[in-house]
Amino acid sequence: MLVQKRDIDYLRNQARLLRIEILKMLTEAGSGHTGGSLSAADIVTALYFYKLRHKPEDPFWIERDRFVLSKGHAAPLLYAVLAMSGYFDKALLKTLRKLGSPLQGHPSSKSLPGVEVSTGSLGQGLSMANGMAMGLRLSKLSSRVYCLLGDGELQEGQVWEAAMTAAHYKVDNLCAIIDLNGLQIDGPISQVKDIEPVQKKWQAFGWNTIEINGHDMAQIVDSLDRAEAFKGVPTVILARTIKGKGVSIFENKVKYHGVAPTKEELDIALKELSDGTGF
Amino acid sequence: MGQVSELKTEVKSFAGLEAATRDAYGEILYKLGLENPDIVVLDADLSSSTKTQKFAKAFPERFFNMGVSEQDMMATAAGLSLAGKIPFASTFAIFATGRAWEQIRQSIAYSGLNVKIVATHGGITVGEDGASHQAIEDIALMRVIPGMTVIVPADAYETELVIKEIVKYKGPVYVRLGRSKVKPVMPEDYRFSIGKAYAFSFGKDVNIVACGVLVREALIASRILKDKGIDAGVINLSTIKPLDEEILLRAAEASLVVTAEEHSVIGGLGGAVSEFLSSIKPKPLLRIGIRDTFGTSGSSSELMKYFGLTGEQIAEEIIQRLR
Ligand SMILES: Cc1ncc(C[n+]2csc(CCOP(=O)(O)OP(=O)(O)O)c2C)c(N)n1
Ligand SMILES: [Mg+2]
C-alpha cells in the first residue's frame, strides 16, 4: 500500500508533476481533453496520494477504496495518476489513443487494471459508484467510493436519479466530487444551461455538501477527511476550479476542452510548470 | 403544422467535394434556416462537433442548446414538433440513439412526430475517442422502431440532398453522419429520394450493397474484382428503412450478395438486407461490418483496416468466399 501522508507541499508538487505528465501524453496523442484533465488534477492528486487506500501492485485488492471517473473524457488525468502511483510503466502513457493501446480514448476497465469502470458516456458514473458503495457495504467492507463528475455532466438526468438513490439508501461510504470549472463544450455552463444554485440542489436532494476551492490542496485534503467522517448521508464536495488550471494559455478557455496542446504550447506549458530547476 | 412550400435552396455546393458529411449538414441546415422559419435546431453541448453551430449563430432564437441532456433534448424536440415546428435534434450517434432511445420511441415515433434526428460520429471512423463514442449499433436501434426512416448518406453531397429532402417529408427520420472527411462518390446529377437506392452498376457475379463510407470502399473493391475477372456491381443503399426492395431483388440476381457498413453485422444494413432476401429470394450473403465486437481507439484509417473494411480487404474476402 502506498504511504499516504498529509503533506501539503508534497501533494502540491505531485499535482504539478501530474499536470506535466498529462500535457506530455496529450501532445503525443495529438488529440484528447486538456481543460478538464487539468482542472481536476489537484483533486485527483489528493485522492491517489493522500486519501485512497489502494495498492498499485495489487489493483484488484478487495479492500481498496474505489475511484470512478464519471467525466471519462478526463482519461489522461486518470492514466497519468495511475502511472505515477505505480500501476504501470510511465512509458505506456505515450500510447494514449493509439491503436492497440490499453489507454483508450475514454477509460476502459477491461483493458487497464486500475480503471474501475468504463466511462466516457456522461452521466452514468454516479449510479455505478452508488452500486459499488452499496455492494461494499453489504459485504461489510469499509472501502469507500469516490466519484468525480463534471459540472456540465450535471445536466444529465441520470445524475439526479443517482443523487436520489444515494440519499435514499444513505450511501455514506460514497463521496461525489464535482469539478465546477464553469465550462462545457459549447461555452460557459451559465450560458448553455445553468446548473446553479448547485449547492442548494444537492442539499435539496438530501446530501451533505462541502464547497471548496478545488485548487487549494489544504482545503481539498480537509474536505476529503470531513466527508469520510460524516455519517448518515452521502457527501458531495463542490470544488470550484479553473478549467485548464496551471497553464495560462489554457486557463478558462472553452476551446481547450477537447484540444490537445501543440508542441509549441507544450513548451510554454512545461516552462510555466517548471519549478525553476528546469526539465 | 406549417405547410412546407417547395424549397428554393440550391444544393450544389458540396457536389464533387471531399468533406465530412457533418460539415455538409451544418451548411445546408443554415441555408434551410434562411428560407424556412419553421426549422428549429436542438443540440446537447456538441454543436461545435455536429456543426449545428452555424445555424445557432445565425438564428439564436431558433436554436436550443439543451446542455448534456440527450433524453431531455429528444422529448423537447417532440414538443416543438407538436407546436408546428420542424425540429432537428443533433448529438453524437451513440448518445442520440443509445441514451435517448426510449424517448425517441415513446415521445417521437409512437406519435409519428415530425422530428429529424441527425446524428454525427456514426461508426468506427470516429477514431481516437474509442469505443464509448463509436456507435456501431445505432442503425439497428433506429431501424427497429416502427415508422422510423433511417438514412446513411455516402458523402457530403448526398448529405445535402438528404437534409433538403427530409424537410419535405413529414415524420420521424434518423440520419447517420460521420466525423471524418470522405471523398465524393455520388455523381453530380444524382438526386436523392427517400427509399430509393442508387446502383452504380449491377454485377453478374457479385453485388455489393453498401452505405456511408463503405460505398467508396465497395467501389474500390469492385474495381479490384473486375481486374480479377469477377463482375461486381455496387449499390448505395442510403435509405436503410424503408428498403428499396426492387433494387435488392435485382441485386440478388448475382451469385453472391455482399453488404458493407461501418456498423455491427448484426441488425444494421446487413441485417435489413438479409431479413428481406431470406424471406423473398434466399441468397448466399456475405455481411461485412463490425463483427460483434466493440470499437477501439486509433486513427480512422487505421481502424478501417483493423476492422477489415477497406476496398482491398473487401475484395479479398469476396474472392475467398467465391472460391
Ligand atoms: C452522454 C454524453 N453526451 C455528450 C458527450 C460529449 N461530451 C464530452 S465532454 C462534454 C462536456 C462536459 O462538460 P463538463 O462535465 O463540465 O466537463 P469538464 O468541463 O470537466 O471537462 C460533452 C458534452 C458525452 N461524452 N457523453
Ligand atoms: Mg465543466
Brief summary of the model shown:
The complex is a heterodimer of chains A (279) and B (323). Chain A is of the alpha/beta class and 279 residues long. Chain A is 39% helix and 12% strand.
Q: What is the assigned CATH homologous superfamily of the largest domain in chain B?
A: Thiamin diphosphate (ThDP)-binding fold, Pyr/PP domains
- Tally of alpha and pi helices of chain A: 10
Structural class of chain A: alpha/beta
Work out the helix count of chain B: 13
How many strands in all of chain B? 14
Note the gap between the termini of chain A. Answer: 29 Å
- In helices, the fraction of residues of chain A equals 25-40%
Cα Rg of chain B: 19 Å
Q: pLDDT below 50 for ≥5 consecutive residues: which ranges of chain B?
A: 1-5
- How far the N terminus sits from the C terminus of chain B, by CA atoms, comes to 57 Å
Count up the domains of chain A. 1
Major sheet of chain B, described briefly? Answer: 7 strands, mixed
β-strand amount of chain A: 5-15%
Work out the helicity level of chain B: 25-40%
CATH topology of chain A: Rossmann fold
The overall pLDDT of chain B, averaged over residues, is 95
CATH class of the largest domain in chain B: Alpha Beta
Strands of the widest sheet of chain B, in order across it, are 3-2-4-5-7-6-12
Report on the architecture of this protein.
The complex is a heterodimer of chains A (279) and B (323). With 279 residues, chain A is α/β, with parallel strands linked by helices. Chain A has a single domain, classed as Thiamin diphosphate (ThDP)-binding fold, Pyr/PP domains (Rossmann fold). A five-stranded parallel β-sheet of chain A has the order 1-2-3-7-6, with helices on both faces. In chain A, helix 1 packs across helix 4, helix 1 packs antiparallel against helix 10 and helix 3 crosses helix 9. Chain A is globular, with a radius of gyration of 17 Å. Chain A starts with 7 loop residues before the first helix and ends in a 6-residue tail after the last helix. The mean pLDDT of chain A is 96. The N and C termini of chain B lie far apart (57 Å). The N terminus of chain B is likely disordered. Chain B has 13 helices and 14 strands. A seven-stranded mixed β-sheet of chain B has the order 3-2-4-5-7-6-12, with helices on both faces. A five-stranded mixed β-sheet of chain B has the order 9-11-10-13-14, with helices on both faces. A two-stranded antiparallel ribbon of chain B has the order 1-8. Chain B has 323 residues and is of the alpha/beta class. Classes of the chains: A alpha/beta (279), B alpha/beta (323). The structure holds thiamine diphosphate and magnesium ion (MG).
